[in-house]
Design brief:
With 341 residues, the protein is an alpha/beta fold. The chain has helices at residues 13-25, 47-57, 72-78, 83-92, 109-112, 126-135, 155-162, 201-207, 250-258, 290-306, 323-333, and strands spanning 4-7, 30-33, 38-43, 66-68, 97-102, 117-121, 139-140, 168-171, 182-185, 192-195, 212-213, 242-247, 265-269, 281-283, 311-315, 338-340. Helix content is 31%, strand content 19%. The chain binds threonylcarbamoyladenylate (TXA) and magnesium ion (MG).
Length: 341
């Protein structure tokens, strides 16, 4: 199968959405941009298409999908709304927030792995919204990367992972956010963040002060209910190289990596630090700026493979506010190899 890359502009957005909707409604998969990362979308009501997502990504069978909607009628069809959900939707939607809610019967177990809940999101990207509205069905869409690999933030990343295996990728340019949506469970007593994103715990607490992180955000192994946040138990976001996250000052980092220099050893640092670092290095954003780090993170992790790196030392970002999303991805990419100096 030839994979078509279709560049989407203001002028052809309607035609592009029609083309994508045609493929989706006949059971095919489409790579499409959202404001967070590129997704690999299927008609959430077509069980065969949903199963195809798992096959094409090589995704573990027990990791449920997010269902994307373009309006509240669609949302009501698939999930049970509660007061907290209505309030968070009012504040943060359309946008990079996914809510875990009690599912409605129309959600097949193939979508949510048979859980009592479904994860739902209304993205803000005009191309994603146009495709959902045109198809007029909710779209199940994980990040488009092959399972375990760094996520996809450009159409080229999607092509790199799936060329010849899906019919169409809509190219909407680089994703503005760069890391996946914040996932928050609203089915318990307190709102619980299962996956940090650019909408931070601090942002959520402005609305609901009792919100908290799930232990799964910090721990390597699933620590609460086995099914509460299934995606957290797999290695994620990883380039082929070994990744080590180093929490230290720039001076300490420089010394640490220079005694570990060697073939294929690289560093990921912040803007303006490259000249201090004795080994080949790439910046992944501005220091203390989670937004800029999030935007570049996956492109730089993928670049590490292109450079043939075998070992990558990464300057640790903060673990507060937006940076927590970046820290969380890096710590998983490193398989929890965190060095504190
Ligand atoms: O930004 C995003 O969320 C992107 C774009 C395409 O929207 N999608 C994305 O999907 O990141 P994915 O499949 O890569 O990550 C979905 C996460 C996984 O960690 C999964 O375990 C969790 O959401 N999830 C899905 N349904 C769930 C549920 N019912 N309960 C708990 N966690 C759930
Ligand atoms: Mg993913």
């Amino acid at each position: 199968m030839e994979t078509e890359i279709l560049k989407v502009t203001d002028k052809n957005i309607g035609a592009a959405a029609k083309k994508a909707a045609g493929i989706l409604l006949s059971g095919g998969l489409v790579g499409l941009p959202t404001e967070t990362v590129y997704g690999l979308a299927a008609n959430a009501y077509n069980v065969e298409a949903v199963r195809r997502i798992y096959r094409v990504k090589g995704r573990p069978q027990d990791n449920p999908l997010i269902v994307h909607v373009s309006d509240f009628v669609m949302l009501n069809d698939i999930a049970q709304l509660n007061a907290r959900a209505v309030e968070l939707a009012r504040v943060f939607w359309p946008g990079p927030l996914t809510m875990v809610l009690t599912k409605k019967p129309v959600i097949d177990p193939a979508v949510n792995c048979g859980l009592p809940t479904v994860a739902v999101r209304m993205p803000s990207h005009p191309v994603a919204l146009a495709v959902i509205a045109e198809a007029d069905v909710p779209l199940a869409a994980p990040s488009a990367n092959l399972s375990g690999r760094p996520s996809t933030t450009t159409a080229q990343h999607v092509l790199d992972d799936h060329n010849g295996r899906i019919p169409l990728v809509l190219d909407g340019g680089s994703c503005e956010v760069g890391v996946e949506s914040t996932v928050i469970s609203l089915v318990g007593r307190h709102p619980v963040i299962l996956r940090p994103g650019i909408i931070s715990l601090e942002n959520i607490r402005d609305v609901f002060p009792d919100a908290e992180y799930s232990d799964a955000v910090f721990s390597e192994v699933q620590s609460i209910l086995p099914a509460e946040s299934p995606g957290t138990k797999y290695k994620h976001y990883a380039p082929r190289a070994e990744v080590v996250v180093v929490k230290s000052t720039l001076e300490q980092f420089t010394e640490y990596v220079s005694v570990r220099a060697g073939d294929g050893v690289c560093a990921m640092c912040f803007d303006g630090e490259q000249e201090d670092i004795q080994i080949p290095s790439v910046s992944y954003g501005r220091i203390n700026d989670g937004f800029s780090q999030a935007r570049r993170l996956f492109t730089v992790l993928r670049m590490m493979d292109k450079l043939g790196s075998v070992r990558v030392f990464v300057r640790a970002p903060d673990d507060t506010n937006e940076s927590m999303a970046v820290f969380n991805r890096l710590i998983r990419a490193s398989d929890f190899q965190l060095v504190e100096l």
